[in-house]
Amino acid sequence: MAPYASDDSTPAGEADDLRVGRRKAVRYIVPVTVIGVAAATIGLVPALADSGDPDLPKITAQQLIEKIAASDVQQLSGTVKITTDLGLPDLGGLESGLLSGATGAAGGGDGGSSADPSAKLTELASGTHTLRVAADGPDKQKLSLLENAAEYSLIHNGKDVWGYDSASNEVYHSTSPKGKEAAEPVPTTPKDLTDEALKAVDDTTSVTVDGTVQVAGRDAYKLLVNPKQSGSTVGAISVAVDAKTGLPLKFTLTPASGGAAVVDAGFTQVSFAKPGAATFDFTPPKGAKVTEEGSADAPTDVPAPSRDDLEGGFAKDLAGLDVLGEGWTTVATFDSGGEGVPSSGDLPDAGGLGGFLGSFGDKVDGKFGSGTVFSTRLVNALVTDDGKVYVGAVTKDALVKAANTGK
């Protein structure tokens, strides 16, 4: 997401094209960035007990973190329920469509495949969803998103990675190096989400063991993570950790503003038996439209954030972005090269995102100049009138302070 650049040797016509490119960049990069950062941060909700508090041996927070790190579950299958409430405006059920539409616009627009996981899995950023997951070592994983009378599946088997959308009968195919897990566009399981959260654990964080719980019939410890810094929108993170395997079974994030969890992701059923080999078999159904990665139909412009892009959380460089501050109040920033926030009229091909963004933007002023803050219950983004973007899991005041400092 580096800013567009030009030099004095650029011909006038090319310079005009670059300016047009900058304007398009701010239209698409801003909403996609907010979605991507949200995806890297969400996934923690108070771990709710299924049936009482099991009597387990005492364990320290450090020992429990080490248990998570040492967990090496290679084989499992189960059902995960994930509920996400970022507090977006009520758009009559269009929230997930706009989120996936933003990614689609960034990735190539209408020419892309509905089975492309970089667009499909962004639907998890809103509402309640049920996932079926299975794994058998680093070469075989499967994730299925169950929908009304339809199903979306992402299958990794050896070098092949398949995405299949039964609703549209479309298939997306790519390859993955042997022995390497297929990268998912967003964290989707309690383990994925816990891995992201624990990257932020440092001296700005309080970590304690908060009793025990049962999740999906398994005895578990509860790990409680609380930011010490003011200005963070994260209230608390609770992770239910399987007492035997160390695998996170439930992941919960509650916002500093209170109320319902931002995201609640947890197993409702889990088994550590070896899944049947046929679980990971896939052949495109007859009549299905198959899009190959790198083909003319595949997205080529700005890919959706991958797990590698999001590596390191807010405490590290986010996908090459500059960062301000530290710990839980870290703010990522970049120059879009644009001209501030686009209006709804500037976004005819982005699913109405201009009006969507404008519906919850607040004008702010400071030493940096003026701009607009777009808010959710977790992630806030400030877009200045001269095209600079500041984004993080911090309050509006913290964003303005960061922009004033960064100026």
Structural class: alpha+beta
The shape is globular
CATH A-level architecture of the largest domain: Clam
Number of strands: 18
> What is the helix/strand order?
HHEHHEEEEEHEEEEEEEEHEEEEH
Instruction: Give the helix level as a range of percent.
Output: 10-25%
Quote the average pLDDT.
Answer: 74
In terms of DSSP E residues, the strand content is: 25-35%
The number of helical segments is: 7
Low-confidence sequence ranges: 1-10, 14-51, 90-110, 299-319, 343-354
Radius of gyration: 21 Å
Biggest β-sheet strands, sense, barrel: 12 strands, mixed
CATH topology of the largest domain: outer membrane lipoprotein receptor (LolB), chain A
CATH top level of the largest domain is: Mainly Beta
* Widest sheet: strand ordering: 7-8-9-10-11-1-2-3-4-5-6-12
The CA-CA distance between the termini, in Å, is 20 Å
CATH superfamily of the largest domain: Lipoprotein localisation LolA/LolB/LppX
Number of domains: 2
Describe this protein's structure.
The protein is an alpha+beta fold and 407 residues long. It has two domains: 12-38 and 306-406, no CATH class; 44-292, Clam (outer membrane lipoprotein receptor (LolB), chain A). Helices cover 20% and strands 32% of the residues. The protein has seven helices and 18 strands. It has helices at 12-41, 61-70, 95-107, 117-120, 190-198, 353-358, 396-406; strands spanning 75-84, 127-136, 140-147, 150-157, 160-165, 170-175, 205-215, 218-227, 234-242, 248-255, 263-271, 289-292, 322-324, 331-335, 361-366, 369-375, 380-384, 388-392. The strands form two sheets. Strands 7-8-9-10-11-1-2-3-4-5-6-12 form a twelve-stranded mixed beta sheet, covered by helices on one side. It has a six-stranded antiparallel beta sheet with strand order 13-14-18-17-16-15, sandwiched between helices. The longest helix has 30 residues, at 12-41. The chain is globular. The chain starts with 11 loop residues before the first helix and ends with a helix.
